[in-house]
Design goal:
90 residues, single chain, 4 helices, flat
């Protein structure tokens, strides 16, 4: 496979990742509304710990380093909190 072909495949995968991240964030208003209606705290450390542990375990099965997966999902969680915070402060 030529380098340009490899790069095109990488670009396609990157586009898929961005699309999926966007779809994930689109769900945050519904999460925030549920939390508001059910008097739940925005941040839920136990849920975050379970989520991170599960993603690290799954990442490991795919040959991904723990730190890599942890860093990615910590940032994903932070961005989710930012979206929720905007909705919940209204």
């Amino acid at each position: 496979m030529e380098l340009e072909e490899i790069r095109k495949e990488i670009d396609r995968i990157d586009n898929d990742i961005l699309s999926l991240l966007s779809k994930r964030l689109e769900l945050m208003p519904a999460v925030a509304e549920y939390k508001l209606q059910n008097n739940l705290e925005q941040k839920q450390p136990n849920r975050e710990k379970k989520l991170l542990a599960g993603k690290i375990k799954l990442g490991n099965k795919h040959g991904l380093r723990k730190e890599y997966v942890k860093d990615i999902f910590k940032r994903v969680i932070e961005e989710s909190h930012e979206v929720q915070k905007e909705i919940m402060k209204k």
